[in-house]
Amino acid sequence: MDLAPLSLLAIVIAIVIGFWRDINVGILSMGFAFLLGVWGAGFSAGEIIAFWPTKLFVTLIGVSLLFSMARCNGTLERLARRSVALANGNGPLIPWIFFGLAALFAAIGPGNIAVVAILGPIGMAIAQEMHISPILMATLLIGGSNAGGMSPIAPTGIIGVNLSQQYLHLDTTFTTWLAMALSAFIWCGVVYLAYGGYKLPKKLLENQKENIALNSSHRWTVVGMIVLILVVAFLKWDLGLSAFAISSILLALRVAEEKQALSGIPWGAMILVAGTGTLIEVTAHLGGIDLLTSFFRGFMNEQTAPAVMGVISSIMTFFASASGVVMPTLIRTLPGLLQDLQPISASIMVAAIVAGGHLVTTGPFTTLGALASASLTPEQDRSQFIRQQLITAIASTFFGFVLFLGLFHLPWFS
Predict the structure, then answer these.
(1) Rounded to two decimals, what is the model's pTM?
(2) Predicted local confidence at residue 83, as pLDDT
(3) DSSP state string for 129-184
(4) Given this model, what pLDDT does residue 211 score?
(5) What is the 3-state secondary structure (H, E, C) of 252-305?
(6) Helix or strand or coil: residue 5?
(7) Cis preceding linkage at 343, omega within 30
(8) Cα 222 from chain centroid?
């Protein structure tokens, strides 16, 4: 019996059940991986377990622990409020300050989900006070978090780097990060103009002169984050183990509560990534990825491949996690797909998948979109906001297709 179509169907069913019943797709994927692998293909339980991405999982835990501490002890929130105060009530500048803050915070380690969770309530409260459209604030906040979130020490960036090294044997860090940052910045600029961000009036925020000082715990946490960046960038230390070492020192200094920091680790997101990755490996061994590659090959050529792959990624992300499901699935198809699409660069195709999937994360069904919606103040119209989220996400899909047709011809991507 040919199990290739069945293995692809298992991925689809896991996504559908997860979306419909609000169950972690990673858990469902592990169940399907066991049933398909052991009962269908004759793998041993040990072989199935070996597909679990151990190194990636350890890296994500270490980095998430460190930045969970920074979130729990208020370091990131303090830094954000001090930065916003620098705008001095300049309305047109406020949304871009949140874009920049989100990009910076996401890039240094917490990642896009943690940053939107931290900055979302602050941003929406300021949007209400400054009469800024909530969807404008949400788009720039999410866009900034995605622009920084592909750094090699942020969770999504770590996933992208690991997938590229595992399946393509190359480092796509620069190309992917640049494509994501440029795409997010340009799209946010379009939304900023569409919602009249440049017309916002100047208004001093209440209590903006309040002194938001950093205490010793905050300062030690900042030092820990800087040290992590330095040892990884210049000494080439392992990211996950370095984060564990720095976290150990900070816990010994009592900069944060251990239980609170551990509970702040996004365990669900990490199980999603690892569980889905395990099922995709089983699917690949059963021929499902080759089948999916053949399907994609039928409607793209050398000129349109990056744009088409970006749109496919966008559509899938409407209902599935960009980093947990879409990136592992689509990047896994590239080795076979690129054989017939020479001379397209593999790094460009990875960049298209990443950028296309993340442009639509303002949508109401995505994690980032849901966090933005949950951050609304009681005075802001939630129903209108959700409608605007859906419209913005759909528009970003078409925008991404047009953008990618030209973006990847720039000299930086050649």
Answers:
(1) 0.87
(2) 78
(3) HHT--HHHHHHHHHHHHHHHHTSTTSHHHHHHHHHHHHHT-S--HHHHHHHHHHHH
(4) 54
(5) HCCCCCHHHHHHCCCHHHHHHHHHHHHHHHHHHHCCHHHHHHHHHHCCCCCCCH
(6) helix
(7) yes
(8) 23
Q: What is the pLDDT of residue 155?
A: 92
Supply the DSSP string of 193-247, one letter for each residue: HHTTGGGPPP-PPTTTTS-----HHHHHHHHHHHHHHHHHHTS---HHHHHHHHH
Give the per-residue pLDDT at 19: 86
Name the region of 338 (left: φ>0; alpha: ψ -120 to 50; beta: rest): alpha
Take residue 354 and report the two structure tokens written for it. 């990443």
Parts of the chain with a pLDDT under 70: 1, 204-211, 413-414
Q: Which helix or strand (DSSP H or E) is residue 100 part of?
A: helix 94-107
CB atoms within 10 A of CB 336: 17
Q: Which two tokens stand for residue 246?
A: 């720095």
Closest CA to 334 of 150, 165, 167: 167
* Predicted pLDDT at 91: 85
| Residue entry with tokens 């996950």 | 240
Residues 331, 168 contacting (CB under 8 angstroms): yes
What is the C-alpha to C-alpha distance for residues 411 and 414, in angstroms, rounded to an integer?
A: 5
Q: Which of 159, 147, 184, 175 is nearest to 345 (CA)?
A: 175
DSSP percent split of the chain into helix, strand, coil, nearest 5: 75, 0, 25
Say which residue the tokens 């595992």 belong to. Answer: 166
Alpha carbons 212 and 340: distance in angstroms, whole number: 57
Q: Give the pLDDT of residue 110.
A: 86
